[in-house]
Amino acid sequence: MNTNIITSIDLGSSMVRCVVADTSGENEQIRILGVGIAQSRGMRRGAVVDVNDAADSIAEAVEKAEQMSGENVKNAIVSIGGAGISVTESQGVIAIGRADGEVNEDDMIRVIEAAQAVSIPTNNEIIHVIPRSFRLDDQRDIKEPVGLRGVRLEVDAVIVEAPSTHVKNLTSAMERADITITDFIIEPLAAAEATLTKKQKELGVVLINLGASTTSIAVYEEGELFHTAVLPVGSDFITHDIAIGLRTEVDIAEKIKFEYGSANMKDVDKKDMIDLSHIDESETEPVYHYHILEIIQARLDEIFDLVVKELESIGKDQLLPAGAVLTGGGAHMPHIVEFAKDKLRLPVTIGQPANLLGVVDHVDDSSYATIIGLVLWAMENDNSQSFIRGGGAISSIGSGAKEMGEKVRNMFSRFLP
Q1: Can you give the residue range of the structural domain that contains 393?
Q2: Cβ neighbours for 320, distance < 8 A, ≥ 6 positions apart
């Protein structure tokens, strides 16, 4: 078995994507060996609602990736999204174990475990425990405490939770597709991994992943994850609005959005008419182009108003110097950057995965930020289950002190500058 081969699966509400990558290249370059895409079935707002249908979509995407790559896929790192993802802050406190007071890797593990000991709803499960900073006695804002001496070690951490039923149904769908999950990573963290730079994270930045049925965000500041959230509205809502507004079928509305959609209404004459018969012969009545854009802008207003409210709730509205980075299928909308700049009052760019080799033409847009981020995440965690998983994963990993120490250091390098 080639341990340099990593498979990632992004199970979205619109599409299932599977990537097989070779990570043995120099300079941390990823070689894309195979890509598989399938229409997503059995999903609603980022959650599995029909295990059999979702499993069929997963199997179809995996089979296509296998055919292109020549690899046999048995396990994968998987994105998890959907409404219900929540974030809380937590602290962990322990006494240093060694008699001489020197902090070692075991102390790091124990203090993270202590941070997990928080009260969460019975129907939720901890997905990530992400350290922000450490405190050793009176010394604060420590990024790497190993080797320092003291009596009391504390950690400030972010706890990311997801509904247990969502996790279980996603796991069941993967199992029925004959795929073993090596780790879960929430969508905005994976997308951030592929698109945000260290400098952006230091200055302060928000990643906005415009998915089909949800919009997820991740806010970074001073190199650390500050906040993440999933908003229950996405770009598919635009399609549904067009279908209702034009009294047409959803498939036709999607084609109309793709061909005539734009986030800019200023350059369109209100009298311009569009003949839709070339899209579908049943569409015999012309429609105003401006009316289509009105429908689109109304929904975009809602999406970005929710993003602004989320930033206001954490005191970061218009206060992120590195601005906003857009990813996901919704970032393909023409003029979305200008629209987002006006709504957010921040600099805005489109985030795309970089430093890739292989069949790059299959993954060179913002829709693949999450799935490439999953590969990067797995690379930096040495293909092992992440230390920041919940559910006892922290205590279950590591067969030796040396190996454990290396994994701990890798984990903290993911989040601390």
Answers
A1: 86-161+382-413
A2: 203, 204, 205, 206, 219, 221, 311, 346
